[in-house]
Specification:
6 strands, alpha+beta, single chain
Length: 207
């Protein structure tokens, strides 16, 4: 796999990992680790157990194999998520892609703290709902929305965001009795995070 600026020998397609137990708790639970929850964030919110999460974390953070998750969009920019598994610089990079172009733009990264610029809720939904035909990557709308969710830095989200996120979580296997609560936790942390940056602006503003 070739992405400019990354060692092609280390990059591997990660889409097959989405169905593995422990993936979504690994990918999303870190957003709830800022101490803002009255409850302790646990993998069980996502229907996983600690053993599932630990086993998959070894795969996701393998220094010799960096999983890549492609979310191409038909109607505009898409996103590529790269697990940057350097021995001394672990993190997750979020790249913006353009249809029909090889150029990618890194817009954010997360290595404990989120750094960079993000997208509005409407932009996330647009990406989730417009998979690009004939291009390799994730096509399921629920998984697409959850993969780009960490990029949400919108100071405000519409009322329907919670229901849409709950539906997406249930769509990837999160139990019905925890999906709504998990969605509320995720949105609370993301919207609280966005309010910390008064200079927030979407990289797609004006596009």
């Amino acid at each position: 796999m070739l992405i400019k600026g990354y060692d092609a020998d280390a990059l591997v397609a990660g889409e097959s990992l989405l169905a593995r137990p422990g993936f979504w708790s690994n990918y999303l639970l870190a957003m709830c680790s800022d101490g803002g929850c009255a409850e302790r964030p646990v993998p069980e919110w996502f229907g996983d157990d600690g053993a599932d999460a630990d086993a998959l974390s070894e795969v996701l953070f393998d220094p010799e194999r960096w999983p890549v998750f492609r979310v191409p969009a038909e109607t505009g920019p898409g996103v590529v998520v790269v697990y940057r598994n350097l021995d001394d610089d672990y993190g997750t990079d979020y790249l913006l892609t353009q249809p029909g172009k090889s150029y990618v733009q890194q817009i954010a990264s997360c290595d404990g703290d989120f750094r960079g610029i993000g997208l509005t809720w409407e932009e996330l939904v647009r990406i989730a709902d417009s998979p690009s035909s004939g291009v390799e990557g994730v096509r399921d709308a629920a998984a697409r929305l959850l993969l780009v969710l960490p990029l949400l830095t919108d100071p405000e989200v519409p009322e329907e965001a919670s229901a849409r996120l709950t539906s997406a979580l249930a769509g990837v296997g999160v139990p019905q009795d925890t999906a709504s609560n998990t969605a509320e936790h995720l949105l609370a942390h993301l919207t609280r995070r966005s309010l910390h940056d008064p200079t927030w602006e979407s990289p797609l503003s004006g596009s």
